[in-house]
Each structure stands twice: as structure tokens, then as C-alpha cells.
DNA sequence: AAAATGTGCGCC
DNA sequence: AAAGGGCGCACATTTT
């Protein structure tokens, strides 16, 4: 079934419809998988018309995944581009979609779309693991639906609580272009400590002022400042923290992103090469923890918040098929279960795992990695192989087949030059991490897709951050939603990895305010 | 004047 | 406690 300029139920004649939202609503009763060019262009309008669909195939997202899988990273991914490639025609660049139109005029007709779909399905079938890639495309497409729905529904955001918090920390809202009182006072303190005016936002001025005071700094990063004994340090650190809050999540930000008690960020599905989501506005994935108290459930409602603890090491255990690690990953606290192998020290187990996944080399890492290599050889080898592939300029893939971008042409020059070793190691750390992070991201997508289907009427996913979800629902639904989260996590693990001793538990808590979730 | 780059830090 | 991988964004500064 294709939604384009026309609606085309498979096996039936395409038909033009006057009211597309109504037609989609009617056909949705058959629970089809809607195929459309780009969820971002089509779905927001349907949502505004009060129509939701349960499944879709997003041609653009699937095309991007396939192109990368075929080693053609970065080529235009639109349905039109895919159609042009099929016919050897000039391939148009991707352009921003046409918002506020249900079906953008430049999208393909139904028959052309069917052609593109058939091509994509054939390319998937030709892969060595078509089942996995089908799951990847389905999960990515479900993500697109969820992202649009979350932007539409918004996360509860109490503007009055936000204003009170800002006022408490910064002073009253200043007139445009001015610093809030407490920020201004801290700026004065910094200048006073140096004995002359210094702009605390200027790295240059700060480094110079510290140098004149006999303190040499290579940067003004807070961890470096904390080592310095100087009266300007304390007010400067306080200034930096509050200035960030003011400019990043202050009143101006709220004016732009909060409406009617809802924060509506724009999510970019697959915006990170690893398959994690990004945001193109609103900074939804970087909300400071201090702001969480502003996220409050509506009257008579609650927020069910859940995160997948220790997701990445669990995913590694499942992927690598490492029996020892998988056994530990069957426990609630993976690191405690590993501690015995690392002299009974949970922290050592954690450092070893993180160093293996991120390529850490400092501190105790080498010693602990040697233990890991001995005790969990398959898991160790799995990430080592990924790192080696990166160092040699090869591509790596996630469990379901998301493919890392190739190294840049600059990298290839660099790697044969005098600093080549460093460039190669950097690339190795990237690919080492990619296989784990990307698989964790697709587990999270699969989990959310399942969860979305399990949620009762009236419950809505309102936030997603890498391995954490938030559902806004009625107080009396909290228990059912919590059970749905646990079930979705278990189903996602089985969907990706089949029979495995690895567990990826998600424990949900129902809270009135996000701040109470941890 | 506008675009590009650098810095720093929030989140996972 | 940080490390170490991934981002987005604002502000300052430099380049065009």
C-alpha cells in the first residue's frame, strides 16, 4: 500500500482522494504497513488531523541504511533519488521536505513509489542477513513514527516551575540582551578578582588575565580551572554553569520551544551515524539534570520513566556470544557479577568493560584489559576486531546491519603521514565503539517500537534519550505501562538476539516529576 | 555582514 | 573521579 499523490491499496486500483487524512484513517482499519517517501513530510499533517498509523516503511530512512550497507554512504536518500537511481537518471540532491502539506507535490506517484519499494525489498533480500536488515528498516521506520508523535504530543513542561527555577538560580528575567542579576554579579566578581574588567565568556581574555596573575592555562575547561588557586576561579566556575543554563535552557529557549505546557523538540531519527537520534532544535537530548523538576505530569496523570541499565555491555555480551560475559549479563547488576573476575572490585570490572568498548588506555585500563582478554576472550576479541577494521580503513556494521561511514579522504592521507599512527588509533576507537553503540541504539528502537504497540489508549511516549523512555499516562495506567516497558525490553532482546542468557532489564518507576525518577 | 572555526559543556 | 565513544548548541573569534 502506497501513500503518494494517490492511495494505492495493494492489489487494487490507485484512487485519488479528496480528504487524505480521512482516507488514511479509513484504510488504517486494515492495519497496513504504510509506505511513504518520508515520515517527516507526511505524518505530522496526519497527526494534526487526528490520524495515527500503526506501521510504516520510510523509504528515505531505508534508502540511507541500504546505501551505507552497499558502501555508498552519503548519497541522496530521498524517494525521488532512489527512483532516479533505479532508472539511471540524474539523481537529485536531498532537499528539506515541504512542511504543512500532507503529501508534498514533489513526491513520487504511487506506481513509482511501488517500484522504489520493490527495489528496496529486493536489495534487502540479497543481503546475507535479510531478516536482520528487515528488522532494522522496520525499527528505524517505527522510530520515525514515534519521533513525529513525540514532537506532536510534547513532553509536559511546567512553564511556571521553569520560570521559578530560573529566577531562583539567576534572578528575575532580564530585559532582552541583558545578563540576569546573579550572572552579572558573578561577572563583576571575576573582574574584581583580576583587578580589571574581563569578559567571562571570552576564553582569550580569561587565559590572558590568568597569565598576568601568574597562572598559565592551556584552556579554561572547568576541570583545569579547578586545579588553580586564584580568587577568580570560584565565581568563574559558578558563572560558567549558570551562563550555560541561561543561554541554553533559559527564558528565550522556553519562548521558542515550550507551548501550552509542552516541550516540543525536533528529533532527527538516525541523525547520529551510530543510529542514535539527534535533535535539530530544542536540545532535547542535553536537558540539564537540574531542569528535570520542570517536567511534571498533568493532574491525574503520571510519568513512567525507565532506562536500560548497562545497555552497552549487555549488548556486547549478546553480540559476541561470550558465555562468561553473557552469564554475568543475565544478572541485574552486570558489573557486580563481573567483579569476582577482577579481584572482587566492581569498579575494576566497570573500567575494564568501558575501556574495551571505548578504547580506553589510561590509568589501570591496560592491566584490567589483560584480565578481560583472559577471562572473556570472545567479548574482548569482538571489539578488538572492530578496532582493527577501523585502523585498516575498513567498515564495520552493527548487529542488524547499520554500516559505519567510511573514513574521509583526509584520513587516508593522514594515516600514511607522520601522525598516521594516531589517526589510525582514533579511527579504531570510533569503529570499536560503533559496533556497540549502534547495536544498543537499534535495541532501543526495537524496544520502543514494541512498547508503542503495547501502550494502552491515553498513554503516550513523550521522551526518548538513547536508552531511556518516558510515558505520560493516567495514574491508574501506571502499572500496566510499567509492565509494558518490561515486556517490550524482553521482546526487543529476543527480536535481536534470539535465545540468549543475556537480559536487558528495564525497570520503570512512576513519578509525578522527572526529577524524582532517579 | 555572513559564514566558518574553535571552545566548552550538557546529555547518553 | 576520570577515562573514552557519540552528539547540539551558544558564544567568541577568525575567515571570507
Question: Can you walk through the features of this model?
Answer:
With 518 residues, this protein is of the alpha+beta class. The protein is built from 21 helices and 13 strands. The chain has helices spanning 20-28, 39-48, 59-69, 79-86, 110-125, 130-153, 159-170, 181-194, 203-212, 222-225, 233-249, 251-257, 311-320, 323-328, 334-339, 346-358, 365-375, 377-391, 409-415, 420-454, 478-497, and strands at residues 2-3, 7-8, 33-36, 55-58, 155-156, 258-259, 262-263, 266-268, 278-281, 301-308, 460-464, 468-474, 506-511. The strands form five sheets. The chain has a four-stranded antiparallel beta sheet with strand order 11-12-10-13. Helix 2 (39-48) links the parallel strand 3 and strand 4 (55-58). Helix 2 crosses helix 6, helix 11 runs parallel beside helix 12 and helix 13 (311-320) crosses helix 18 (377-391). The protein is globular and about 80 Å long. It binds a DNA duplex (12 and 16 nucleotides) through residues 199, 201-205, 219-223, 240-241, 243-245, 247-249, 271-274, 276-281, 283-289, 307, 311, 351, 354-355, 357-363, 365, 429-430, 432-434, 436-437, 465-468. One of its GO terms (biological process) is double-strand break repair.
Topology:
Elements: E1 2-3, E2 7-8, H1 20-28, E3 33-36, H2 39-48, E4 55-58, H3 59-69, H4 79-86, H5 110-125, H6 130-153, E5 155-156, H7 159-170, H8 181-194, H9 203-212, H10 222-225, H11 233-249, H12 251-257, E6 258-259, E7 262-263, E8 266-268, E9 278-281, E10 301-308, H13 311-320, H14 323-328, H15 334-339, H16 346-358, H17 365-375, H18 377-391, H19 409-415, H20 420-454, E11 460-464, E12 468-474, H21 478-497, E13 506-511
The protein binds a DNA duplex (12 and 16 nucleotides) through residues 199, 201-205, 219-223, 240-241, 243-245, 247-249, 271-274, 276-281, 283-289, 307, 311, 351, 354-355, 357-363, 365, 429-430, 432-434, 436-437, 465-468.
Organism: Nonomuraea pusilla
Catalytic activity: DNA(n) + a 2'-deoxyribonucleoside 5'-triphosphate = DNA(n+1) + diphosphate
EC number: 2.7.7.7
Amino acid at each position: 500500500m502506497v501513500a503518494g499523490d494517490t492511495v494505492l491499496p495493494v492489489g487494487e486500483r490507485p484512487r485519488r482522494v479528496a480528504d487524505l487524512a480521512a482516507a488514511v484513517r479509513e484504510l488504517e482499519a486494515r492495519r497496513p504497513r504504510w509506505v511513504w517517501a518520508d515520515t517527516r513530510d507526511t505524518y505530522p499533517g496526519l497527526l494534526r488531523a487526528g490520524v495515527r498509523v500503526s506501521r510504516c516503511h520510510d523509504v528515505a530512512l531505508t534508502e540511507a541504511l541500504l546505501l551505507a550497507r552497499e558502501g555508498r554512504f552519503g548519497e541522496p536518500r530521498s524517494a525521488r533519488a532512489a527512483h532516479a537511481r533505479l532508472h539511471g537518471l540524474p539523481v537529485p540532491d536531498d532537499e528539506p521536505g515541504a512542511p504543512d502539506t500532507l503529501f508534498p507535490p514533489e513526491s513520487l506517484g504511487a506506481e513509482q513509489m511501488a517500484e522504489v519499494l520493490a527495489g528496496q525489498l529486493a536489495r534487502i533480500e540479497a543481503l546475507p542477513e535479510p531478516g536482520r536488515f528487515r528488522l532494522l528498516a522496520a525499527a528505524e521506520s517505527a522510530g520515525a513514527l514515534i519521533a513525529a508523535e513525540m514532537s506532536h504530543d510534547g513532553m509536559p513542561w511546567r512553564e511556571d516551575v521553569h520560570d521559578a527555577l530560573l529566577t531562583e538560580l539567576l534572578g528575575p528575567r532580564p530585559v532582552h540582551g541583558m545578563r540576569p542579576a546573579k550572572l552579572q554579579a558573578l561577572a563583576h566578581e571575576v573582574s574584581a578578582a583580576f583587578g580589571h574588567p574581563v569578559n567571562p565568556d571570552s576564553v582569550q581574555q580569561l587565559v590572558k588575565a590568568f597569565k598576568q596573575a601568574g597562572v598559565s592555562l592551556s584552556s579554561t575547561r572547568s576541570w583545569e580551572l579547578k586545579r588553580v588557586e586564584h580568587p577568580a576561579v570560584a565565581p568563574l566556575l559558578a558563572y560558567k554553569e549558570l551562563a550555560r543554563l541561561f543561554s541554553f535552557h533559559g527564558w528565550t529557549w522556553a519562548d521558542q520551544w515550550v507551548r501550552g505546557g509542552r516541550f516540543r523538540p525536533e528529533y532527527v531519527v538516525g541523525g547520529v551515524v551510530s543510529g542514535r537520534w539527534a535533535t535539530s532544535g530544542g536540545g532535547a537530548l542535553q536537558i540539564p539534570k537540574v531542569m528535570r523538576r520542570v517536567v511534571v505530569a498533568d493532574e491525574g496523570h503520571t510519568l513512567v520513566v525507565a532506562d536500560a541499565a548497562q545497555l552497552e555491555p549487555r549488548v556486547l555480551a549478546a553480540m559476541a556470544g561470550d558465555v562468561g560475559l553473557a552469564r554475568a549479563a543475565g544478572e541485574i547488576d552486570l558489573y557486580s557479577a563481573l567483579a569476582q573476575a577482577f579481584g572482587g572490585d566492581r569498579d575494576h570490572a566497570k573500567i575494564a568493560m568501558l575501556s574495551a568498548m571505548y578504547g580506553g588506555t589510561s590509568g589501570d585500563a591496560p592491566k584490567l584489559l589483560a584480565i578481560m582478554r583472559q577471562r572473556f576472550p570472545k567479548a574482548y576479541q569482538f571489539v578488538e576486531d572492530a578496532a582493527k577494521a577501523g585502523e585498516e580503513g575498513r567498515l564495520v556494521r552493527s548487529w542488524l546491519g547499520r554500516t559505519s561511514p567510511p573514513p574521509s579522504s583526509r584520513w587516508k592521507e593522514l594515516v600514511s603521514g607522520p601522525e598516521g599512527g594516531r589517526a589510525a588509533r582514533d579511527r579504531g576507537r570510533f569503529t570499536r565503539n560503533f559496533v556497540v553503540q549502534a547495536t544498543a541504539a537499534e535495541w532501543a528502537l526495537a524496544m520502543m517500537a514494541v512498547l508503542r504497540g503495547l501502550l494502552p489508549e491515553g498513554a503516550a511516549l513523550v521522551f526518548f534519550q538513547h536508552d531511556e523512555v518516558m510515558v505520560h499516562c493516567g495514574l491508574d495506567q501506571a502499572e500496566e505501562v510499567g509492565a509494558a516497558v518490561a515486556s517490550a525490553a524482553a521482546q526487543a532482546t529476543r527480536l535481536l538476539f534470539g535465545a540468549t542468557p543475556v537480559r536487558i532489564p528495564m525497570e520503570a518507576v512512576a513519578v509525578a516529576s522527572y526529577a524524582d525518577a532517579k
